[in-house]
Every structure is written in C-alpha cells, then in structure tokens.
Amino acid sequence: MSLLTIGINHNTAPADMRERVAFPDSILPVALEKLIHVPSVDEAAIVSTCNRTELYCSVDSWQEGKSNTMQWLSEFHDLKIDQTQPFIYDHREQDVAKHMFRVASGLDSMVLGEPQILGQLKQAYQKAVGAGTLGKQLNQLFQHSFNVAKKVRTHTSIGTNPVSVASTAVSLAKQIFGDLSERKALFIGAGETIELAAQHLTTVGIGRITIANRNIARAQKLANKFEGYGVSLSYISEVLHESDVVITATSSTLPILGKGLLENSLKRRKHQPILLIDLAIPRDVEPEAGQLQDIYLYGVDDLKQVIQDNMQSRLDAAEQAEIIIDDEVAKFYQWLRGQDVTDIIRSYRSQIEQHRGETIDKALRMLKQGKSPEDTVNYLANTLVNKLLHHPTEALKTANAENHQELLEAAKIILGLPRD
C-alpha cells in the first residue's frame, strides 16, 4: 500500500484551469464514490477550494495509481489528459504527509499562514468519512495534519500578524477600539476591495455597516450582503460622525473627505477617535486630515509597510514551522511503516494459528483412536516444528544459493541467532 497525492493549485495552474477541475460540494459524494472504484485505489479523499484541487489516495501500486487517478480527474471533468497533465503535481509516501502538513499549516497557501485552508481540509475529511472512502492510512494522515497545524499555530507566530489590506484594517481597528461589536463602520465605494474589507469586519462582529457610493443602488446591493445600509455619497456628512471605522476606496480624482468635514464630525462625536483607512489612488482623504488629533489616518503606503513587516515575521515563523513539520513527517512515516510490520505479524500469526488448529485436531483424533498420549504429544510437537520451520528453511536455502548475504544476516536477527 502506498500514499499518493495528485493536484493542481495556484502555483501550477491559472484560475480558469483550477475552475474546470474543481469539485463543488454538491458533487463531492458522487466524485468520491467514483474515485474509490478507480483501479488500484483503496482509500480516497478530495480537497477542492478556489486555489487547489487535490486527490489523496492510498493505492496498491503507486505508478498505476498515479496514472489512473490523473486519467480519472481529467475524464470526470470532460477534459483530455494532455489538457490537465502540464498543471498536475504529485507526491508519494512521506512526501504526501509533508505536503498535507504544509497545506494544513498555511505554508502552501497564496497568502502565507492563512488559516482558512485548515477548515477546508476538515470539511474534506468529513465528506470522505460520510462517503465511506477513508481507511486507516488516510484517516491517520488527516488527523495527524490537524494536530500538526495546531502545533504550528501554537509554537510559531505564522498567523499572528495580518498580511492583507483587509485583515490589516481589521487588526488596526481592534488595536484602537478593542471590542468591535458596538462600533460602526462606513465604507466609501462599492468595489472588490471594499467588499473584502466588509467581509473581514463582519467576520469579527462589527456592530453596523454603512456603504456609500455614487450609485446608490449598487451601494444598497452590497450593503444587503452584510445586513447593512446603502447611501449615496452626498449623504456622507450625515453618517460620518456616527462612524468609528471609515474605509474608503473609490476611483474619484478629487478627495471625498476633507479636513473641514472631518473636524465637524469629530465635534459632533465629542472627539471620540475615528480610524480612517484610505485605500484609494489618488487619495480619497486630504492628507491634512491626518493632523487632526483624534483621526488615525492610514494610507496605502502605510499599510504596505505594515504588511511588509508582518510578512517578514511570517516568513521567519514559516522557517520554524518547517522544522516542526519535518519532525512530524518522520513520526507519521514511522507509524506508516509500522503498519506494514503489523500486517506481516498479523498474517504470520494467522498462518501459525491455522497450523496449530489443524495439528491439534489431528492429535485429538489420534487420542480418540486409541493412540498413546506419548505418541500423540510427540506427533504434535514434531508436526508443529516441521510446519513452522518449512518456509523459513526453504527461504534460507534460496537466499544462500543466490548469495543474498544481507537476507541471511537479517534472518539471524529475526530468529534470535548469534551473529558472527
């Protein structure tokens, strides 16, 4: 039995190819049922996200399993193998474990150290459990990967510092206000950057969201996603004083928030601080607004420096994480090899038990037929000895004839014999 992974991810394939080989949740059970019946595949799990699709399998033959699963992945998505093959990577045995441990720990993600992939791995595990396609090897691999991810998070700072604009904005808001559940956020603009920032603040429980945009219908449509309010840009002066966090990202060629408007808003809120994050180029906020005592103004360049510093911190943590992962891979592979020994011992014991049962049955029949206890015991002992020695003796003779000295030395260790 061998472990095998084949996959496509953000490092090897463009977005359109990743989309074509993805497995939506609705078809995962069917896909798993089909994958487990691919020749040579004994266990199977599928991890599918926007950035990766990976098949984890336990296979009888690694080479056959690799060829069959690559072919199956292409055919399942109505693609030809030459369309997918240039983008596919593969891993075997302990490299499978190392890959999954790195994925679970966020070291193989587009954003280094991001935690979302661990939840996606756990969902993939539950889907495979529900489909009945996991066995001992893959079950242990997933469980070990979850423990490794926890260990990496506990013993390194891989996920401590944010490294995206949206997550950095949330981090700054927490630093200034602490609990955000009673705070209000105003987003100016309705593009992708604003939507991502709103998602992050919603995730951490911001109290209320208002979105302002020139196109009020677009503002309301986006606000509805977050149970917020959509207003026009002309209404900003009416909501600015109520806002603790303001994030702006528009394509305006002129500033939208001037120093005077912000001064008036601070007076109305009795100089409670405002976190103001300007993600626009050209800037949406007059630079002079940063001189106001209760305004915490961050521009794109400010956030870039924070992100750069945080990324370096994550890179340093990633080096520590790799050491942890290498150690855990060794532990997992030791367990994996132990399963081979266990199977050998179980098989050998079963063989001996069969010999024992057959010989005892014959001995009991001898007693019933009037044979003396002494003859019966001698028969029992001699027969068992001969049966137990037969295969090892023949194997030793063959090893000697073919000059396999290493096998002869190993036999001495296994049989407990003195070594020269």
Q: Key features?
A:
420 residues; alpha/beta; Beta Polymerase, domain 2; Rossmann fold; six-stranded parallel β-sheet
Strand content: 5-15%
**CATH homology group of the largest domain:** Glutamyl-tRNA reductase, N-terminal domain
Task: Please give the order of strands in the largest beta sheet.
Answer: 7-6-5-8-9-10
Distance between the termini: 35 Å
Q: How many domains in all?
A: 3
SSE succession: EHHEEHHEHHHHEHEHEHEHEEHHH
Shape: elongated
CATH class category of the largest domain: Alpha Beta
How many β-strand runs? 10
- The helix content is 55-70%
Mean pLDDT over the full residue set: 90
Structural summary, described in words:
By secondary structure, this protein is of the alpha/beta class. The chain has 3 domains: 2-155, Beta Polymerase, domain 2, CATH 3.30.460.30; 165-307, 3-Layer(aba) Sandwich (Rossmann fold); 337-415, no CATH class. The chain has 15 helices and 10 strands. The protein has helices spanning 15-20, 28-35, 62-76, 81-84, 94-104, 116-131, 136-155, 165-177, 192-203, 216-225, 236-239, 259-268, 300-368, 373-401, 405-415; strands at residues 2-9, 41-48, 52-59, 89-92, 184-188, 208-213, 229-232, 245-248, 274-278, 295-298. The strands form 2 sheets. The protein has a 6-stranded parallel sheet with strand order 7-6-5-8-9-10. β6, α10 and β7 form a beta-alpha-beta unit. α5 (94-104) crosses α7 and α6 (116-131) runs antiparallel to α7. It is elongated and about 115 Å long. The mean pLDDT is 90.
